[in-house]
């Protein structure tokens, strides 16, 4: 039990912050930081209604590529607001242009 041989680490729950952003051909949404657990209601009230919908309304034509957060209530939001979706297979980050942006941010 030499102190030089012991690696200390925190075993409790870590604070989670989700960072959400959207990009277009010549524009981007504001970055949204969400602390804690993200459920469908919070996703709608903190991301889709205040950020995504106004952003899409400001574009002449738009097709929204959703992330993989697809509970039924979120699907209903897209139908109710008549937002056209570009659906891609789950776990296909190579098909999502924003993944390249997140890589640049990480670097």
Automatic annotation (TrEMBL):
MF annotations from Gene Ontology: nucleic acid binding
Protein name, entry field: Transposable element Tcb1 transposase
Database matches in InterPro entries: RNaseH_sf
